[in-house]
Design a protein that fits this description.
Elements (H helix, E strand, L loop, with lengths): L1 H22 L11 H16 L5 E2 L5 E2 L1 H13 L3 H34 L11 E5 L2 E5 L1 H13 L2 H7 L7 H19 L2 H14 L9 H5 L1
Length: about 220
């Protein structure tokens, strides 16, 4: 039980670190608004005024509507401020770190079942891995924690988590879509299958890059 608590504590530390890097001084850094962010804000205000939350916004070369509609809800709650457009990205970025932990742990669990069909009763069972003359003792949770930590401190991910661009929603829906899909394959639960479909389907309403996700899943 102590090991369980330790891993949950470390995951909480990683998530707090991720949130700090993504939310700290978001009102001033980066300064000003990119033209794409400003266009999102205008569309968000129009959606609130008219009540017409579009699936696709044709302005600015066309953009999927899900992210802008969420920004509009944030503006309705907090007011028309630049930082309000960006906290949506910060939220997506922070929860993506959690999603990467979950999907990594689930992926390694599925792999363990394929390579070692015997049921694992010990949550902390460690698998030795050899690198040349070195022997590394590391378990699924440790790999998942390291993966989420690296994403939490990734410059690229922090940068786009602090800008109001819809592209940051792609990794969020990708990791959670894969997580629920892998869980459905492992457990056979209908609820996991449905959630995998929901997250994957919503991902197509974020950014054009998500259209490659079916190839990733295959």
């Amino acid at each position: 039980m102590a090991a369980h608590k330790q891993k949950f504590f470390l995951l909480a530390v990683v998530l707090i670190l991720a949130a700090f890097f993504r939310f700290y001084d978001i009102n001033n850094s980066p300064p000003g608004l990119w033209p794409d962010e400003a266009t999102n804000g205008i569309n968000a205000l129009e959606a609130l005024k008219t009540g017409n939350f579009k699936i696709f916004y044709p302005e600015n070369n066309g953009r999927e509507g899900l992210y802008i509609n969420i920004q509009a809800l944030a503006v309705k709650v907090f007011g028309p401020q630049a930082w309000v457009l960006r906290i949506v990205s910060a939220l997506f970025g922070t929860f993506t770190v959690l999603g990467l932990y979950l999907v990594t742990k689930e992926l390694l669990s599925v792999k363990s079942q394929i390579t070692n069909p015997k049921p694992q009763t010990n949550f902390n069972t460690q698998n030795p891995k050899r690198f040349g003359n070195w022997k590394l003792e590391i378990g699924n949770c440790e790999v998942a924690l390291l993966s989420s930590f690296f994403l939490a401190t990734s410059f690229w991910h922090i940068n786009f988590s602090r800008i109001g661009f819809r592209a940051i929603a792609v990794p969020f829906f990708a990791v959670f879509g894969l997580y629920w899909l892998l869980k459905a394959l492992r457990t056979g639960k209908i609820s996991s299958t449905v959630l995998g479909g929901v997250f994957t389907g919503l991902g197509f309403h974020t950014y054009i890059a998500f259209r490659f996700m079916p190839l990733v899943m295959v």
